[in-house]
Chitin-binding protein (Streptomyces brasiliensis), 201 residues
Amino acid sequence: MRTQAKLSAAVVGLATVGALVLSSGGASGHGYTDLPVSRQKLCQNGTVTNCGSIQWEPQSVEGPKGFPAAGPADGQICNGGHSEFAQLSSPTAPSGGAWPTTKVTGGQGYTFRWQFTAMHATTDFKYYVTKPGWNQNHALARSDLNTTPFLTVPYNGQRPPSTLSHSGTLPTGLSGHHVILAVWTIADTGNAFYACSDVTF
């Protein structure tokens, strides 16, 4: 009986250590957009295939914060600078053809939505969009984007719920295929999370 109790205590101890390792950053990444649907979500839900490991961890596109002055390098913005998620920055979908798009209308209200697996203290959420005539044949660069966000949602260090929606107005003067870049800036680390969504205006 005493041996069984010791064994149970050891199992509980190992489980606690495992939980501490996970909570202290053993698992990376914690949020993504699904409205408009992001490239990582398209990979996770199987709409786009051959995506590699991002299909199992769409929440993991975490990179340095401070965009556009800092942050991931040009050509790696959509994958947050992670080479293992390079498929997200490809101008074409990994399964071939164009990335699927969400239809939107310039000047209209739109509800953006984030899903979180870890709720970090948050500085803000910012949304950028590609310029008219942007180069669709290469991985996204700052020169393709209007680097002034069309929507900024301050969050003042609060932690979001597991699902967070907020409303904004889509920019006018755009037509055809564009990319919306959503950036979730963390308040108490040096990082932010990046999500690219393909849209058709």
Observations:
- Residues 1-28 have pLDDT under 50 and may be disordered.
- The first helix runs from residue 2 to 26.
